[in-house]
TrEMBL record:
Pfam families: Exo_endo_phos_2. GO terms for molecular function: catalytic activity. Residues 1-73 form the Endonuclease/exonuclease/phosphatase domain. It comes from the Eukaryota. This is Endonuclease/exonuclease/phosphatase domain-containing protein.
Amino acid sequence: MWGSNNSTTLSNSFVDWLQNSNFVMLNTSNLTCTSYTGTNSLLDLTLCSTSIYHQVDCFVSDSTFESDHNPVITTWSLLGQTSKTIKTIDWNSIMKNTSEILSSTNSDLHTVMHKVSGIIKQNTKHSALPDKAQPPFMIKAHFEETISEEFQDYFIIATDASKSHIYTSIAGTSDLRSFSFRIHPINSIFTAEALATCEAIVSSRQRPSDLDRQFFSLAST
């Protein structure tokens, strides 16, 4: 379900529970953990209620911050956009400086602890997590929801055009038919895009029952 190659009794029980619950998993196939042996796995699972699924965004940051787990960033649109930070600690520097203090001082315990606390503070910082656009599955879900709710009397015609120094071509597809043609290379890419859209509309009118329907054309350059 979440891209793991291993199956256990516990994981199977979790899947059974999830499929009968009001929760949905937000994870994609992006791995979240890398062990010291270099083995990658997806250990960190994120769930949300089905009622807010289309309002929640979740992605795995590629910033490890010296941990074997990658940060999993989850946002809810109703809470607004806020900056995201993570606390990082340079343990190597802390251990080195602490060892030097312990081996070179005759101070009392209170003084030693004060120095060690200062070293920890100096080697601790808050780093900003990088922002990331919505993952493809979220964009797809939002798009399909908008089409089903706002464009019930429409159907999609996807068109495209391409041009090289030798060829100029157009293509299109819908639930009715698909087409692709080469046109004279003298045509510009803009002319080709317009022709592809016109061809798609003309082709869609070949079915009489659709003559009174409206058409929603997506043209990409």
